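Obj.: predict assembly geometry.
Materials: sequence records (below).
Method: joint structure prediction, all chains together.
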Amino acid sequence: MPAEAAPVLLAVEGVTKHFAGVTALSDVSLDVRSGEILGLLGENGAGKSTLLKILSGVMPPSGGRIIFDGAEYTPSSPQDAKRLGIVTIYQELSLIPTLTVAENIFIGRAPTGPLGLVSWRRMEQESRAIIARVGLTIDPLTPVSALSVAEQQLVEIARALSLKSRLIIMDEPTSALTETEVQRLLSIMDRLRKDHVAIMFVTHRLEEASAICDRMTVLRDGRLAGHLDRQGGPIQLPAIIEKMVGRAASELYARPAQRAVAGDVVLSVRGLRTVRDPEAPHAIVLDGVDIDLKEGEILGVAGLVGSGRTELARAIFGADRIAAGTITLDGKPIAPASPADAIKLGIGLVPEDRKHQAIFAALGILPNFSVASLGRFSTGFGFMAERRERDALSGFRKMLSIRMASAEQAIEGLSGGNQQKVILARWLARDPKVLIVDEPTRGVDVGAKAEVHQILVQLAARGIAVMMISSELPEVLAVSDRIVTMRRGRITGEMPGVEANEEKLMELMALDRRETPPQDAEGQAR
Amino acid sequence: MSMAEDQNQRGGATLAKLLMSFGPLLFLAALVVVFTVLKPSFIDPINLFNITRQISITGLIALGMTFVILTAGIDLSVGSLLAFCGMVAAVVAKGGTANTLSLSTSGTQGFGWFAALLAAVVVGALAGGVQGLAITRLKVPPFVVTLGGLTVFRGLTLTISNGGPISGFDASMRWFGTGLIGPVPVPALIFAFAAILCHIVLRYTRYGRAVYAVGGNAEAARLSGLRVDRILVSVYVIVGFFAGLAAFVLSARLNSSEAVAGIGYELTVISAVVIGGTSLFGGIGSVGGTVVGAALIGVLQNGLQFNNVSSYTQSIVIGLILILAVAFDRWLKSRVRR
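Observations (raw C-alpha cells):
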C-alpha cells in the first residue's frame, strides 16, 4: 500500500486542550490518509481519550485546528461528526440489544416506502449487503442481544460504513475479543483499508498495533512523543514501548531470576470438573484439571480466552459449582461452596474484570480496601475499628506505592494501576495462603505493569502461593517460576519458567494435540 | 486521567461537592425562612413540634427504606404492611377482634401496649423477611415482589379487620402517639432515636459497610466474601420492622387502626429517601439525608397548609420538588465528574 500516494484525509495541527487550568493535550499534530491504518498509542492519561473526544465532536479543542477532507473540521456534536464522516466506535458498544441488527444499522434513518412507513424489506436487503462487507453472515433480523461481543462490534463497523464514513476511529476494539476474533477483526480492518477507508486504531495491545498499522502516533503526558513508520516490516515493539514510556524497553518486563521453589505443596487440585450451566451452554467447563501450587512460588497459568483459566480460578475460589474432583489445602480436603468459604480458608482472588467484579466505583478507597476483611477491622460488637483500618491502608499505600490523595477519595478517580494495587492490598490485608490473580495487569499502564509484577514477586518471596492467570505471554514469562498451559478446560503442558518461551507456550495453548476432543468440549471451540 | 488533572478537578468541584452534601439542608432552611416570612407563626415551637410529629410516621419507615434503597432495592409494600401491622397491634392490644367498634379503653381484655408493639414489629420484620427471601431465592425483582406484597398485605388487613377500624386503646398505649416529654412529642423522640441508631449502624459498623458494598457492586461484594443474599434479606427485615414500629405509633396516635391506613405512604417514603440524596441505583446515600428529606416534605406540607394551599396543590408541589431535587443532584454530579 503506497501510503505516500494517498491524500491526507485528516490533519490535526497543534491541537491543545485545557481543563480548568490543566493541560490535557499540548500541541499535538498528526495526520491520517485515506486507505491507511494509523495506530494511536500511549499510556493511560497520555491524552488519547481527550483527542478522541475532540475528534468525535464531544468537545472542542482549546487551540490548534483540524482539517478534514480539505476543510476546517469543527463538529458541534457527535451526531455532527458522524454527518461529516468521522465515526468513533467505543469500547462500550452503543447498539440497542433488543433491536435487530438491521434496525440498529438503520436506527434513526430507516428506509421508508411511499406512505412514509418503514420499508422492512428494503431495510433487510440493504443491511444484508452492508454486513457482508464486514464479513458477517448472520441474518440481519437477529436481535443484537443474541450476538457475541465481536459480532456486535462488526455490526457497529457496518453501521459506520453505511453512514459513508471516511474515517473510523476504533477505541480499544480488541480488548474484549478472543484471539480468533481479533484475527478476524484485523483482517476486516485490512479489507477496509483496501476500500480506501481510513482507520484510527487506538489500542493498548502493541502486538496487534504492530501487526496491522501502517504508521503510529504515540502520545505521552498529553504531548506528541513521536511518529513511527512501517519501513519494509512491521513496527517493532521495543521502539513503540520506548516512545510510550520514554525509556528503553529493556527496563520493562525485567525478568527476575526464577527461583527453583522447593516449598511444600499448599494447594492441590485433582480431577476438577465444573457443571455445565443449561442457561449458558457455550460456557467453558473444566474437564479434569490437575494442578499443584507450592508455597512461595508464582505459578503462571497461560491460556487464551475460553481455555478455562478463569473458570479454574472461580472453581477453586468457590464462585462456581464443582461437579467432580478434589481440592486440598495444606493437605486437608476443602469444598468451598462460596467465595466467603474460600476466603476463610485463606484463598484470595483478584478477578479479571476489575470494574464489574472487584471495585466499588462509587465508594472511597478505604471501604474498597477493607471489604474482604471487615471482621479483622472491627471490634467484637461489630463496630469498625477505623483507626486500625486506616493504619493498615497507609501501610499498604507505602508498601505498594499506591498513588492516592486520601482514604476517602473515590476509587474511580485512581488510574487502573493504582486501583489494582488497592485490590491487591484488599487481599494482602488477610494474609492469604493462596492468592489467585486473573489478568493482573489488564487495563494497567505499561509503567505500572512492571510495578504489579514486582509486587507479585515480593508476595511469593513472603511465602504466599501465587497463581497468576494471564493471556499476555511476556507477562507470564516475566514473573512465573513455573508455567502451566490450558486449552479447552484441560491442562495441556507444564514447564519451569526458565525453560519456557513464547513459541512453546503458544503451541500448547493454541494447538490441539489430542486426536479426539473430549466429549464435553464439543461446541466450545471459538 | 492524570493525577494533576484529577487533583485540579476536585479542587474546582469543591463547591459542587459541598452543595451535594448540604443542598437538601440548605433548601430546607430556605423553605423555613420563606414560610416564616409569609406567616411568622410558622416558626412557633408548637408548630415545629407539630411538624416533627407529622413526619415521624413516614420518617420511621424512610429510615428502613434507606437501607433497602442503598442495596439498589425498593419496597413498595410498606404502606400496606403498615396497615397490616397496625391491625395486628390493635388485635393484640384489644385481645381479639370481637369488640372492634367498642371505644372502651379498658385494657383488661387485651395484652397491653408492650405486647402490641412487639407483635407489630415482629410481624413487620417477618413480612419483610419473607419478601427478602422471595427476592433472593426466587430471583424475582424487588419491585415485583413488593408490588405483590402491597396487594397481599392490604388484603390481609381487610380480612382480619373485616374492612373496618379497630379503635380504643388504653392510655399507656396512646401515650406513644400523643404523649409529650417536655415540649417534645413522643413520636418525634422515637424517630430521632431510631435515626441516630440507623446512622450509627450504617456509618460505623461492619454491617453498614456491607450494605454499601452490596449496593455498590453486588458481584464484587460476593467475590469479596460478603454473604450478599443474607444482607439483602436483612434490609427487607429492617424496613418491615420500621413499618411495624410506625404502625404502632400511628395507631397509638389515632387511637385506632384503620384498614385503609398508609395508602400511598410508600411513595412519600421513597420520595423522602430520594430527596435526601440516596441513589436508587444503590451504594450512595445516608440516614442524615433521609431525615432531611423527610423534614423537607413535612415542612412543605405543613407550610402550604398553614398558608391555606389546598391539599390538591400540595401534591403537585411535592411531586415537582421530588423531580427537581433529583435533577439538581444529577446536575451537581455532572459538574463534579467533568
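Conclusions so far: The first helix of chain B runs from residue 3 to 12.
To do: check interface contacts against the pulldown list.
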